[in-house]
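Objective 1.3, modelling of assemblies. Example input:
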Amino acid sequence: MMKRKQKRSFFEILVAMALFAVCAVADAMRVLPDAMPWRLLAYLVPYGWIGWRVVWKAIRNMVHGQIFDENFLMTLATVGALVTGEYPEAVFVMLFYRVGELFEQMAVGKSRDSIAALMKIRPDVAHVEVIDGLRDVSPEEVSVGDILVIRTGERIPLDGVIVEGESSLDTVALTGESLPRDVTVGDSVVSGCVNRQGLLRVRVTCLYADSTVSRILKLVEESGEQKSKSEHFITKFARYYTPAVVLAAVLVAVLPPLLLGMGNGALWREWIMRAMTFLVISCPCALVISVPLSFFGGIGGAARRGILIKGSSYMEALASCHTVVFDKTGTLTKGTFAVTEVIPAMGFERDTVLRMAAAAEVYSTHPLAVAFRESVEEKGYLPEAEQVEELAGYGVRVRLDGKTVCVGNQRLMAEAVADWTEDRLCHRAGSTVYVSVDGSYAGCVVLADQLKDDARQALEALKRCGVRRTVMLTGDGEVVAREVADALGLDEWHAGLLPDQKVEHVKRLLIDTGEKGTLVYVGDGINDAPVLAMSDVGVAMGVMGSEAAMEAADMVLMDDGLLKLSEAVRLCRRTLAIVRQNIVLALAVKLAVMVLGVLGLANLWLAVFADVGVAVLAILNAMRTLK
Amino acid sequence: MKKVFEMEDLDCANCAAKMEEAIRKIDGVTYVSISFMAQRMTLEAEDAVFDKVAKAAAKACKKVDSDCRVILK
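Predicted structure (tokens):
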């Protein structure tokens, strides 16, 4: 949609075109007397109509000391054309300049809007429960502990915990993941998700300002602050470009006539005209606008996929990533245990061993108990245990179907099993739980943290993206680390690390990587803030809702999917490629116009056409990043 | 102190760069960044002189582009 100001410009341009057409037709039909003032006066009508804003702004800005202001340059070029008698050219340049400007504003407005649209997660209203029913308030006014009601199809306005109802949530706006997430009482929900079915009552756990939605919005809005090298380059370039081109224009206007013949009026006129083409292309705006526009679009497009990048400088860094360092637990692995193997002893069934272990562990407070419960749950039946005794540091002893069952570590086995020998020890990666029945060894169950389903695929994708080195740093033991590293084909891994040793490793890797590229660290954002901050790009993943991680990281992956990483690299590369295309395209066209201008092959028509055309192309190209 | 100001009618990307340049020269400014796309200015200056600096920054913007307005709040 055009804004008021843009509509006004559009109207002015249309009228100017009509006026210009009338003048041109009259001119062609020789209606206008050739005598000096009449043609000029006729063309001054459309010129004044379309150009007065530019001229006026040029004067105002000049008073403020802005000499190389684009308005001033356009004014100078067109006045120059008027003075040398090229009236239609003067009008055309001004007209086309305004067309370009309008187009620029519309393009920028459109890309701003489309980012606002894909960021349309800002809730307008929250239904808060009060004594006598519901009250609609703005999310900012809700306090912690309030109960909110969220109806079907509504967006959750603040983070909270479900106290009543169940639903499946649409998280696509946050994570880019279209699979809905089922939630029920006791689950925490994140603002920005849409309630797809049923009525939810949610107890608010944080203020709006701290909620996920406002943190995401803030992050995207502030992303323009971390400017990339390309942006710095282009603004610096623009600083010298304009004065240099203007200087060249002066030289072109003055030098050849001085050298070739001072008194020759036609010569002067010819070279001044050629110099005017320089002024027309001296405005760097198309160039300067297309770079931040591309990055802005890239960041917006990534955000829509659940990849939040905190600034274009990180986009640049990510595009040239060489080494990727992973944390293990919660990053490469799910961070939750599951039964990976059951090894029954002679004379026992696999299923019996697992069932006994599960029945006993149900009463345990041990974190592994959950894994047991899940592994047996699918199979249904679980025997009822009696006389449960928790033996701290050993395990559990229970009565199951009249038998004494011990479930625990090897120390427990040494006591419970008469013929226990060390060679029964299991050396698989993960935690092992041993089971004995009535004093004889029944077998063991191995539980391990599981690789994420997409971990292998994600690492292969990264390699295909040109990542040279993948490293895993973990605090876990060697056996587990080796297994993960082998399964994933990592280039390097280090196990049993304390947090400060992780820092040391990253320092070393940073030096190693050196000029070859950048180092990206991927963690779950828990306990690795120093490493996140140290690396060129710190990535926190699966942090929908974790404040600390979002603060410390340079890039945030909203869900657990590791594949997002290579997707992000590809996105950044594409954005950077577009930025480069724009820079090269704009410079090449401008240079070509300058050369042609000096040779007398380019007139003002061509110059302004090329200048606006290249701006339009660059902007259209930049807007591809949004896709 | 660091504060973010919204800007109105910031129509030209090159102007944003020039404004940054001008503001950086104001006494007391420790950091400034203008995002043309987001139409915002992030300004950091010493607490004691912050309001004065902010006013000067708004003036500097006006000087570069007379149509542009910084919303000081």
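DSSP finds two helices and four strands in chain B.
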